[in-house]
Design a protein that fits this description.
Elements (H helix, E strand, L loop, with lengths): L1 H47 L4 H6 L2 H30 L2 H27 L6 H11 L8 H13 L14 H5 L12 E4 L2 E4 L2 H5 L11 H40 L2
Antiparallel strand pairs: 1-2
């Protein structure tokens, strides 16, 4: 009799524990679902954003590739969160195992992406962008993707060069346009009857500091997106932590289901 009661009590405790794991699994997967939705939203926003972030991304192949990686990862997390929720609620071992294997692959891929981002971080430095600007920027050739992208960035953020207008010294731009100290995109503009017009383009092209934008684009862009960068970094850490716990709960629930 005593053994029967102990066995029943143990079975009840196991059932309560399994139920607790099931609902924790559901909560973590719902958070993964929300994280995937957020990444999808960020990726779509970057691609269609009218304020110029798309041009900034296009200026660097690594960043441009990163946008599509964010979209892909967001879609996968969206799907996995949905599968994990269904597997937890229905206690389906096949769904749980499939979920565990896929989220493990995504977890490893995210770690690999973080390592690659650290290895190739020199491609996001001021020195790298300055070197590329001096080597490839032409000024007025809008058929050149690199040049038109930089013109869009400088017009959008009212900046000039990577660090300052001095970046155009000894550059391809100065070789092509020997009478211009800075490109037209560096000139200050003012609103007239709803349209932007240059204040004094001639003086600006001759290098007059009063009529050109003197702030570098690197600082302008970083200042504009500083908050988003920190939020994205914090979110990435949170997503990795949630994924880790979700894998643990998935295995516990998988082993507990009879």
């Amino acid at each position: 009799m005593g053994q029967g009661e102990a066995s029943a009590r143990g079975t009840t405790m196991e059932g309560d524990c399994l139920s607790c794991i099931k609902y924790l699994m559901f909560v973590f997967n719902f958070l993964i679902f929300l994280g995937g939705s957020f990444l999808l939203g960020v990726g779509v926003w970057v691609l269609v954003d009218p304020t110029g972030f798309r041009e900034i991304v296009a200026a660097n192949p690594l960043l441009f590739t990163g946008v599509y990686i964010i979209l892909g990862m967001g879609g996968m997390l969206f799907l996995l969160g949905f599968l994990g929720c269904c597997g937890a609620i229905r206690e389906n071992k096949c769904l749980l195992l499939f979920f565990f294997m896929l989220i493990l692959l995504i977890f490893l891929a995210e770690l690999a992406a973080a390592i690659l981002a650290f290895i190739f971080r020199e491609h996001l430095t001021r020195e790298y962008f300055t070197k590329e600007l001096k080597r490839h920027y032409q000024g007025y050739n809008n058929t050149d993707v690199f040049t038109s992208t930089w013109n869009a960035v400088m017009n959008t953020f009212d900046c000039c060069g990577v660090n300052s207008p001095e970046d155009f010294k000894d550059s391809l731009f100065r070789m092509i346009n020997q009478n211009h100290m800075v490109p037209e995109a560096c000139c200050q503009r003012a609103s007239e009857t709803g349209e932007l017009a240059y204040i004094n383009k001639e003086q600006c092209l001759l290098g007059n500091m009063m009529f050109r934008n003197n702030k570098g684009c690197y600082s302008a862009v970083v200042d504009y997106f500083e908050l988003y960068i920190y939020v994205a970094g914090a979110l990435a850490i949170v997503v990795l932590t949630i994924e880790l716990f979700a894998m643990v709960f998935a295995m516990c629930l998988f082993r507990g289901i009879q």
